[in-house]
Amino acid sequence: MPEKIIKVLLVDDHQVVRRGLRTFLEVQDDIEVVGEAADGAEGVARAEELRPDVVLMDIKMPGTDGIEALRRLSELDNPAKVLIVTSFTEQRTVVPALRAGASGYVYKDVDPDALAGAIRSVHAGHVLLQPEVAGALLAQDDAGGNGSGRGSTLTEREREVLGLIADGRSNREIARALVLSEKTVKTHVSNILMKLDLSDRTQAALWAVRNGAAG
User: Between the N and C ends of the chain, which has fewer C-beta atoms within 10 Å?
Assistant: First the structure.
Protein backbone atom coordinates (compact mmCIF):
# COMPACT_ATOMS: atom_id res chain seq x y z
CA MET A 1 0.00 0.00 0.00
CA PRO A 2 1.24 3.54 -0.75
CA GLU A 3 2.36 5.62 2.21
CA LYS A 4 0.26 8.64 1.23
CA ILE A 5 -3.25 8.50 -0.20
CA ILE A 6 -4.16 11.60 -2.23
CA LYS A 7 -7.71 12.63 -1.36
CA VAL A 8 -9.59 14.03 -4.37
CA LEU A 9 -12.85 15.99 -4.62
CA LEU A 10 -14.73 16.06 -7.96
CA VAL A 11 -16.62 19.26 -8.84
CA ASP A 12 -18.60 19.22 -12.09
CA ASP A 13 -22.24 19.91 -12.92
CA HIS A 14 -22.45 16.87 -15.22
CA GLN A 15 -22.97 13.63 -13.34
CA VAL A 16 -21.68 11.58 -16.29
CA VAL A 17 -18.38 13.49 -16.15
CA ARG A 18 -18.05 12.92 -12.40
CA ARG A 19 -18.84 9.25 -12.88
CA GLY A 20 -16.23 8.96 -15.61
CA LEU A 21 -13.58 10.69 -13.52
CA ARG A 22 -14.37 8.49 -10.55
CA THR A 23 -14.07 5.38 -12.73
CA PHE A 24 -10.67 6.57 -13.96
CA LEU A 25 -9.40 7.13 -10.45
CA GLU A 26 -10.81 4.16 -8.55
CA VAL A 27 -8.15 1.84 -9.98
CA GLN A 28 -5.29 3.99 -8.60
CA ASP A 29 -3.77 2.69 -5.36
CA ASP A 30 -2.67 6.12 -4.16
CA ILE A 31 -5.76 8.18 -5.07
CA GLU A 32 -9.11 8.18 -3.26
CA VAL A 33 -12.19 10.10 -4.40
CA VAL A 34 -13.60 11.40 -1.11
CA GLY A 35 -16.58 13.31 -2.49
CA GLU A 36 -18.41 15.03 -5.34
CA ALA A 37 -20.15 18.37 -5.91
CA ALA A 38 -22.40 19.61 -8.70
CA ASP A 39 -21.46 23.31 -8.63
CA GLY A 40 -18.86 25.71 -7.30
CA ALA A 41 -20.65 26.68 -4.10
CA GLU A 42 -21.21 23.06 -3.15
CA GLY A 43 -17.62 22.32 -4.08
CA VAL A 44 -16.30 24.96 -1.68
CA ALA A 45 -18.54 23.65 1.11
CA ARG A 46 -17.48 20.05 0.47
CA ALA A 47 -13.81 21.06 0.36
CA GLU A 48 -14.17 22.78 3.72
CA GLU A 49 -15.83 19.67 5.12
CA LEU A 50 -13.68 16.94 3.55
CA ARG A 51 -10.28 18.66 3.35
CA PRO A 52 -9.20 17.05 0.06
CA ASP A 53 -5.62 17.29 -1.17
CA VAL A 54 -6.66 17.97 -4.78
CA VAL A 55 -9.89 19.32 -6.27
CA LEU A 56 -10.74 18.40 -9.88
CA MET A 57 -13.06 21.17 -11.05
CA ASP A 58 -14.88 22.29 -14.15
CA ILE A 59 -14.80 25.98 -15.04
CA LYS A 60 -18.25 26.52 -16.53
CA MET A 61 -20.97 25.59 -14.04
CA PRO A 62 -24.36 27.12 -13.23
CA GLY A 63 -24.55 29.38 -10.20
CA THR A 64 -21.05 29.68 -8.73
CA ASP A 65 -18.63 28.93 -11.56
CA GLY A 66 -15.13 27.51 -11.28
CA ILE A 67 -13.39 30.90 -11.23
CA GLU A 68 -15.38 32.17 -8.26
CA ALA A 69 -15.06 28.80 -6.53
CA LEU A 70 -11.27 28.99 -6.96
CA ARG A 71 -11.19 32.36 -5.24
CA ARG A 72 -13.24 31.03 -2.32
CA LEU A 73 -11.17 27.86 -2.05
CA SER A 74 -7.97 29.92 -1.80
CA GLU A 75 -9.35 31.60 1.31
CA LEU A 76 -9.75 28.32 3.21
CA ASP A 77 -7.19 27.18 5.78
CA ASN A 78 -4.72 24.82 4.08
CA PRO A 79 -6.46 25.07 0.69
CA ALA A 80 -6.37 22.11 -1.68
CA LYS A 81 -4.52 22.18 -4.97
CA VAL A 82 -7.00 22.73 -7.79
CA LEU A 83 -6.72 20.97 -11.15
CA ILE A 84 -9.11 22.36 -13.75
CA VAL A 85 -10.84 19.80 -15.98
CA THR A 86 -11.94 21.54 -19.15
CA SER A 87 -12.80 20.98 -22.79
CA PHE A 88 -10.42 22.11 -25.52
CA THR A 89 -12.90 24.77 -26.69
CA GLU A 90 -12.82 26.37 -23.22
CA GLN A 91 -9.07 27.02 -23.37
CA ARG A 92 -9.56 30.80 -23.30
CA THR A 93 -11.05 30.45 -19.82
CA VAL A 94 -8.00 28.59 -18.53
CA VAL A 95 -5.95 31.79 -18.13
CA PRO A 96 -8.40 33.41 -15.66
CA ALA A 97 -8.58 30.10 -13.77
CA LEU A 98 -4.82 29.94 -13.39
CA ARG A 99 -4.74 33.53 -12.22
CA ALA A 100 -7.45 32.70 -9.67
CA GLY A 101 -5.28 30.02 -8.12
CA ALA A 102 -5.48 26.81 -10.15
CA SER A 103 -2.31 24.71 -10.26
CA GLY A 104 -2.95 23.50 -13.79
CA TYR A 105 -5.50 21.91 -16.07
CA VAL A 106 -6.33 18.80 -18.07
CA TYR A 107 -8.80 18.23 -20.88
CA LYS A 108 -11.95 16.17 -20.35
CA ASP A 109 -10.77 13.52 -22.81
CA VAL A 110 -7.52 13.03 -20.87
CA ASP A 111 -6.02 9.56 -20.76
CA PRO A 112 -6.63 7.89 -17.35
CA ASP A 113 -2.91 7.45 -16.67
CA ALA A 114 -2.25 11.08 -17.62
CA LEU A 115 -5.03 12.24 -15.30
CA ALA A 116 -3.59 10.28 -12.38
CA GLY A 117 -0.16 11.67 -13.18
CA ALA A 118 -1.52 15.22 -13.26
CA ILE A 119 -3.12 14.76 -9.85
CA ARG A 120 0.13 13.46 -8.39
CA SER A 121 2.05 16.33 -10.00
CA VAL A 122 -0.07 19.18 -8.63
CA HIS A 123 -0.23 17.44 -5.25
CA ALA A 124 3.57 17.50 -5.23
CA GLY A 125 3.52 21.26 -5.83
CA HIS A 126 4.16 21.40 -9.56
CA VAL A 127 2.39 23.67 -12.03
CA LEU A 128 0.85 22.07 -15.12
CA LEU A 129 0.89 24.38 -18.13
CA GLN A 130 0.70 23.62 -21.83
CA PRO A 131 3.27 25.67 -23.80
CA GLU A 132 0.60 27.62 -25.70
CA VAL A 133 -1.09 28.69 -22.47
CA ALA A 134 2.18 29.75 -20.82
CA GLY A 135 2.96 31.78 -23.93
CA ALA A 136 -0.50 33.35 -23.94
CA LEU A 137 -0.13 34.36 -20.30
CA LEU A 138 3.18 36.10 -20.88
CA ALA A 139 2.01 37.72 -24.13
CA GLN A 140 -1.12 38.99 -22.39
CA ASP A 141 0.99 40.62 -19.70
CA ASP A 142 3.30 42.17 -22.29
CA ALA A 143 0.30 43.61 -24.15
CA GLY A 144 -1.10 44.96 -20.91
CA GLY A 145 2.11 46.79 -20.12
CA ASN A 146 2.47 45.17 -16.73
CA GLY A 147 5.72 46.87 -15.74
CA SER A 148 4.95 47.64 -12.14
CA GLY A 149 5.94 45.77 -9.01
CA ARG A 150 8.70 43.28 -8.54
CA GLY A 151 8.52 41.98 -12.11
CA SER A 152 9.81 45.28 -13.46
CA THR A 153 13.24 44.55 -11.96
CA LEU A 154 13.78 41.50 -14.15
CA THR A 155 16.11 41.74 -17.13
CA GLU A 156 14.96 40.61 -20.58
CA ARG A 157 16.97 37.39 -20.22
CA GLU A 158 15.51 36.72 -16.78
CA ARG A 159 12.02 37.16 -18.22
CA GLU A 160 12.86 34.59 -20.89
CA VAL A 161 14.09 32.15 -18.24
CA LEU A 162 11.02 32.78 -16.10
CA GLY A 163 8.76 32.10 -19.06
CA LEU A 164 10.47 28.76 -19.61
CA ILE A 165 10.19 27.92 -15.90
CA ALA A 166 6.44 28.56 -16.21
CA ASP A 167 6.51 26.24 -19.21
CA GLY A 168 7.77 23.48 -16.91
CA ARG A 169 11.30 23.33 -18.33
CA SER A 170 14.26 22.08 -16.31
CA ASN A 171 17.50 24.07 -16.07
CA ARG A 172 19.07 21.75 -18.64
CA GLU A 173 16.18 22.30 -21.06
CA ILE A 174 16.31 26.07 -20.51
CA ALA A 175 20.04 26.06 -21.16
CA ARG A 176 19.49 24.17 -24.40
CA ALA A 177 16.65 26.45 -25.52
CA LEU A 178 18.55 29.68 -24.83
CA VAL A 179 21.99 28.36 -25.80
CA LEU A 180 23.42 28.97 -22.34
CA SER A 181 25.38 26.89 -19.85
CA GLU A 182 23.46 25.26 -17.00
CA LYS A 183 25.56 27.27 -14.57
CA THR A 184 24.41 30.51 -16.21
CA VAL A 185 20.78 29.36 -16.08
CA LYS A 186 21.14 28.54 -12.37
CA THR A 187 22.45 32.06 -11.80
CA HIS A 188 19.49 33.55 -13.65
CA VAL A 189 17.06 31.40 -11.64
CA SER A 190 18.71 32.49 -8.38
CA ASN A 191 18.44 36.14 -9.43
CA ILE A 192 14.77 35.70 -10.35
CA LEU A 193 13.95 34.14 -6.99
CA MET A 194 15.84 36.88 -5.15
CA LYS A 195 14.23 39.74 -7.10
CA LEU A 196 10.73 38.31 -6.77
CA ASP A 197 11.28 37.30 -3.14
CA LEU A 198 10.34 33.66 -3.84
CA SER A 199 11.71 30.45 -2.33
CA ASP A 200 11.64 28.00 -5.25
CA ARG A 201 10.97 27.57 -8.97
CA THR A 202 7.42 26.31 -8.37
CA GLN A 203 6.57 29.63 -6.76
CA ALA A 204 8.31 31.35 -9.67
CA ALA A 205 6.11 29.48 -12.16
CA LEU A 206 3.00 30.44 -10.22
CA TRP A 207 4.18 34.06 -10.05
CA ALA A 208 4.64 34.09 -13.82
CA VAL A 209 1.16 32.67 -14.32
CA ARG A 210 -0.66 34.97 -11.92
CA ASN A 211 1.33 38.19 -12.27
CA GLY A 212 3.23 37.97 -15.52
CA ALA A 213 6.91 37.92 -16.33
CA ALA A 214 6.92 41.12 -18.39
CA GLY A 215 9.18 43.90 -17.18
Answer: N
